[in-house]
Design goal:
heterodimer; A: alpha+beta; 3-stranded antiparallel beta sheet; 60% helix; 11% strand; globular; B: alpha+beta; 5-stranded antiparallel beta sheet; 3 helices; 5 strands; elongated
Chain lengths: 541, 111
């Protein structure tokens, strides 16, 4: 680097540092007929500032802005991968017919990609295998075939405008944080606190307290810190206004598409959900070493995303009313509000469903038995590959290409590559890698700590779960009903080299040295006992 | 004299002070930049510049007393440095400087 710290050198260094050396970038100067040019023209009506735009290919999916002290221009940086990923996630959540399983898969796929770029190879492989097992061809097809080229060639609709331009418009909005125009939006700390309290009502008290503490702590670097959240809401509203104007002008010129207000509202709101989704995946992929601790910032991000949606929707009431009617009378406002509500209701219903899928990803990531049990997943993956499904092999091949493009290696990655190429080959598990088994466990006064005993017709039995499956959760919830008072039912994971080793470990834990047997999930005996003693949950088998 | 590139991420106050400290030394330059992500997280503040070998120990010692999330000097990068790590980093940089000077001396002697 030269000694003069020119803006170009600073930008180059920041982009390399943020996206990785494998990425490439250009300073983007859009042609007059390109949608981005319409955006920049519209921005001139809002803000008298010059911008330079950098378009990054490859590397991590990111959009950010830079404000370099003393520089003549503000800098906007966006990556093709971010736009393509946004489109994929939006399709998965909002267009394909929402299902929590699909959301779970897309989240795992996203986390896998990000974890690999962050150097967490085993988690990346595990998340990849988890999302692939049982995947349908249709869902696999989409992510592989979305590129910036597709977007550029696609018809310019409300979806295009929001996907490609909202992020940049939002960043531009941040340069207006001090503007009197923005302060007129009337987003106050009191208003946001009320919205947070309203949305978190059903959460545990300690989680609500933590979130509110982050909200009020001016020194907090949480996304939900009040001043920060106000600025984010303001930037969203600026972006919404800019895109409203951009869309109307652009579609008038293009004459190939008529502006559709309902679609615009839905696209604006759904992008909020998509951004929240991507950034929670990113957060998870950056904090994998802390997997055993519930990351409260993830909850804060979820709540902040909802609050931003609410404020954006409130703003849309005015924006839509003023678009539809010349005068904003009370009557007209109610009509505008009704229009927005009819679309927004659908959005919030989808987000509730999507959250269910996302919560399952939390279980996968933050439960030690799941995250460590890569080898169990590899066995499942092998079984899956042995079934006729050529498309999944294609997807695995692409993933291996990504693995090979890094310098990362592990025992799991070697076996993963081997099994992918020849699913019939034997998995050679490293002796250093232990399996993790899950148990129900009872803790109580005087340091009482024992595995949860089932007395069955076969004597003392302990159920052993191989994974964080619905049946594990089902048995836990079923047994939980019997617990009141000082004793607690817990989920516990135990490391063992094999099943014999596990037996010895459990035997050493028992206060009473009576004979017992371990009943492993996925065995006939396990299914028989669950069906006999817990018929209410046997449908989970 | 070869300048060392320096890139420090931290709180706004710390970065402003570190930036002033860097610029107070001869042959050292730094600029502050604010980075905002689309994710809604708080802004990242970065001091970005070049420092001369002679000033590096002073600047590192100054940074040791500040709230810093990441320090990158040339190719050496430390995330969330603790006071202990800062000291290790200072020693490592000093060692690199010493090695660099030693190599330069050897090259000159060979000539």
């Amino acid at each position: 680097m030269k000694n003069n710290n020119s803006e170009e050198e600073i930008i180059e260094e920041i982009i390399s540092s943020e996206f990785g050396l494998a990425s490439g970038f250009v300073r983007y100067n859009p042609e007059p007929e390109v949608p981005m040019r319409y955006l920049l023209n519209t921005v001139k009506n809002y803000l008298n500032v010059d911008f330079s735009i950098y378009w990054v290919t490859g590397g991590k999916p990111k959009i950010f802005c830079l404000d370099i002290e003393g520089a003549s221009e503000k800098v906007l940086v966006f990556s093709s991968r971010y736009v393509a990923l946004s489109k994929y996630i939006k399709l998965a959540i909002f267009s394909l017919g929402i299902s929590d399983q699909l959301v779970e898969r897309v989240a795992l796929e996203t986390i896998s990609e990000m974890a690999l770029k962050n150097g967490y190879i085993d988690i990346a492989i595990s998340a990849f295998m988890k999302q692939l097992i049982g995947k349908t061809l249709a869902a696999a097809y989409i992510n592989d075939h979305i590129s910036m080229l597709d977007l550029e060639l696609s018809k310019k609709t409300e979806s295009y405008v929001v996907l490609v331009l909202f992020g940049l418009a939002h960043e531009i909005g941040h340069f207006m944080n001090e503007d009197t125009y923005v302060s007129s939006f009337n987003i106050s700390e009191i208003l946001l606190e009320r919205q947070i309290k309203n949305y978190t009502k059903s959460m545990p008290t300690w989680v609500i307290d933590e979130i509110l503490s982050k909200f009020h702590d001016k020194k907090s670097d949480s996304c939900i810190e009040a001043t920060n959240l106000i600025q984010e809401c303001q930037a969203d509203i600026v972006a919404c206004n800019i895109l409203f104007d951009t869309s109307i002008e652009m579609f008038e010129d293009y004459k190939e598409h008529e502006f559709d207000l309902d679609k615009f509202i839905m696209q604006i709101l759904s992008y909020q959900g998509v951004v929240g989704f991507i950034h929670r995946c990113e957060r998870i992929s950056q904090n994998i070493s802390d997997y055993s601790i519930i990351d409260l910032e993830l909850e804060a991000m979820h709540v902040a995303s909802h609050v931003r949606s609410i404020n954006l929707m409130d703003h849309l009431y005015y924006a839509v009313t003023s678009f539809l009617y010349q005068d904003i009378t009370e009557e007209n406002f109610l009509l505008g509000k009704k229009k927005v509500d009819s679309v927004a209701l659908n959005y919030f219903e989808i987000m509730v469903e999507a959250e269910l899928g996302f919560r399952r990803v939390f279980d996968f990531i933050y439960t030690p038995s799941r995250i460590k049990n890569h080898w169990y997943l590899l066995e499942k993956y092998k079984e899956y590959l042995l079934k006729p499904n050529a498309f999944s092999l294609f997807e695995s091949g692409r993933f291996i290409s990504k693995l090979n493009s890094t310098t990362l290696k592990s025992n799991l990655s070697k076996e993963f590559v081997k099994i992918t190429r020849n699913p019939s080959s034997e998995i050679l598990r490293s002796l250093d890698d232990k399996l993790i088994f899950s148990f129900l466990w009872v803790s109580g006064p005087d340091e009482y700590s024992q595995p949860f005993l089932f007395q069955t017709e076969k004597g003392n039995s302990y159920f052993v779960f191989l994974d964080y499956t619905p049946i594990f959760e089902g048995v836990y919830q079923y047994c939980l009903m019997a617990f009141t008072g000082q004793y607690k039912l817990l989920k516990v994971s135990i490391n063992a080299r094999n099943r014999d080793d596990l037996y010895e470990i459990i035997a050493s834990e028992l206060y009473e040295k009576s004979p017992f047997e371990l009943v492993f999930e996925e065995t006939e005996e396990f299914n028989y006992l669950i069906t006999k003693y817990m018929p209410e949950i046997s449908n989970l088998l | 004299m070869t300048p060392h590139s320096i890139n420090i991420v931290g709180s706004q106050d710390s970065i402003q002070e570190i930036n002033a400290e860097i610029n107070s030394h001869d042959n050292c330059k730094s600029r502050v930049l604010q980075k905002r992500n689309l994710d809604g997280s708080t802004s990242t503040w970065v001091a970005f510049g070049t420092v001369a070998i002679s000033a590096l120990p002073h600047i590192l010692n100054f940074m040791n007393r500040k709230k810093v999330r990441k320090i990158k000097i040339n190719d050496i990068e430390v995330e969330n440095p603790t006071d202990d790590m800062n000291e290790v980093l200072i020693e490592l940089i000093k060692k690199r400087i010493s090695e660099s000077e030693h190599n330069t001396d050897l090259e000159q002697n060979e000539k």
